[in-house]
Structure prediction request, 328 residues.
Amino acid sequence: MLSIAKNIYRLSFQSLKILMYYLNDAKKYYFSAIFPRKKYRRIEGIIIKLTHSMEKRLSFENRDPSFGKEKAFKLISLLESGLKDSNSKVSSTIACWSISTLNEFSKTFMEKNEQIEFLKRLTSISKLLINHINPTEIQGGIFELTRDEILTSSKDNYEYFSKNRHSIRNFAGPARIEIIKQSISLAQKCPSTCNIQPVRVYLTEDEKTLNSILSIQRGNKGFTEKIPQLLVFTADLSLYSGFRERNQCYVDGGIFSLSAAYALHFNGVGSCFLNWASSRKEDVRLREILNIPENEVVIVLLAIGNLSEKISIPLSKRRPMDEIFKVV
Ligand SMILES: Cc1cc2nc3c(=O)[nH]c(=O)nc-3n(C[C@H](O)[C@H](O)[C@H](O)COP(=O)(O)O)c2cc1C
Prediction:
């Protein structure tokens, strides 16, 4: 009798705690991402996302001139307001990257008259960053790499290896399943919470399945038809316990999927993460397509395939060290 009462107490305590912690998570997310107290951080986030969208577009073979102009005008307005407002603390590195990418974008996608006006606006905001612009350094846009350059770097020392892993969005057909499996087996060596090894990996290369999944994933526009294979990483929630471990699946899933991306790079296979920031309906649909059980949570997708001879790669500028590292 006493043990039943104890179990009921334990379960009610856990249920209440889980509810409270999720409510607290919701509050934290609401006041950081949806209705932020530090508004300029949000503006910087939008600037980064729009800039990345521009550089991705520049890297695609199909250069449809109608694409992205609206985003380019939105981005320049955000930069103007963000940089002119003395309270705003938009990172100078991010702003330089953004301006250089817009510069490349306008040269590629805009007609002469439109471009002249646009470049005037860019020059005007560039003046605000005069101390940060380094003319000898490429600040934004795209760069080219050959397959041989990537393959050589993938067998070199860690610094060269990791600096030459880039998201690949233009593949030359499917990679061999044995190589993919060998890469996943290397990724299995990565650490996980108490070694519970919660990650499960689904591979699909069937055209119909690929198209069904990619049609509900938001982030493959412009290179959908270039993707020959897809990995879907999930984590088995039933291996966790208690309210404290409620988010561990994303940590374990993140570590595993990056290890897989690096192992694929080591084996000469290109990859690009595809977010699974989905609605409930999209999540249910993906589960139906791949037959993913209810106890597994989808972490992220990875488009994979063989490297093509020559690859255009978005610069994807990184923040300077002093913005991200603090000795406290
Ligand atoms: C969790 C996650 C989700 C991502 N989702 C997408 C996506 O949906 N579409 C896309 O083109 N790239 C996606 N990426 C790739 C990022 O844009 C890319 O990693 C970033 O710009 C840095 O560039 P790099 O990987 O070439 O170094 C994603 C990356 C991560 C880690």
